[in-house]
Amino acid sequence: MAQTVQVPTHLYKYQPYSTKALENLKSRQIWFSAPAHFNDPYDCAISAVQTFSDSDLRKLFDHCRSHDAPSPTAYDAKYLTGGVPNNRFRVEVARGSENVFNENRRILSEQRGVACFSVKNDDLLMWSHYADGHRGFCLEFDGTIEPFSRSRPVKYSGEMPSLNPIHIMTNSEEDDLFEVMVLTKSQCWSYEEEWRLCHKEANRPYGYHYAALTGIYFGAAMPLASKEIIALILQGSPTILYEMRRRDEGFSVYPQSVTYTPFRYA
């Protein structure tokens, strides 16, 4: 189950400049996507353990006997030999467990929501991939304020994670499966240093307190008009505005705080 972790002071979310992004900014909300809609087909991929130990079978037998069997006596006669789960039980478990596992995985992929963040605001690849080639912007959130304080770090691995389906079948909580799915990615994505925030419902926005949005970083190629529109949306808020600027030497960008004065009629 989930353990307490120290969330970074700030979390960053790269955005393209779009009508939806502006609506979310104006309404102080972030979008939680279903994992099934992620762009990486291996994101949230997980496999089922195929071989079960005697203790696994016993655990499942006891669970099924107490929860599903209309007649415990008949259940014992069918699935026990010498007081232990028999081969018939093992075969039926092998046949049904993968289906149960896959169905649980499908439901979680389609119905749970995930919002993704990074601990970095100056990564060239993420500016290119997630912020429309540096024409978008990056949100800075205070990691000590709800809901961002509940974010969890992504673990990167060279192997696809696996989980014992019997654990899922005997545990009414789905959090273990979802946690392994959502918080494990291929090692090739490790440069993102990603943190994720999960919600019970997917494909909808959820609000946050205005104080949680501590900064906005404009991409190095963002048009001036786009910057001014965001500045107008945030007029009077405590959010600090920055421009990402190219360094004269080296392949990197750095933030510079800026102030935009809205147009005023004479």
Explained architecture:
The longest helix has 25 residues, at 87-111. The protein has 266 residues and is an alpha+beta fold. The strands form six sheets. The chain has a five-stranded mixed β-sheet, covered by helices on one side. The protein has helices at 19-27, 54-67, 72-79, 87-111, 124-130, 165-169, 175-182, 224-233; strands at residues 10-15, 29-32, 47-48, 80-81, 84-85, 113-118, 137-142, 152-153, 155-157, 162-163, 184-186, 194-199, 204-207, 213-218, 240-246, 253-258. 27% of the residues are buried. A hairpin with a 6-residue loop joins strand 15 and strand 16 (253-258). The chain is elongated and about 90 Å long.
List key phrases describing it.
alpha+beta, five-stranded mixed sheet, three-stranded antiparallel sheet, 16 strands, 32% helix
Order of helices and strands: EHEEHHEEHEHEEEEHHEEEEHEE
Number of helices: 8
**Percentage of β-strand residues:** 25-35%
Q: What strand order characterises the main sheet?
A: 1-7-14-15-16
Distance between the termini: 61 Å
Task: Give a brief outline of the structure.
Helix content is 32%, strand content 25%. By secondary structure, it is of the alpha+beta class.
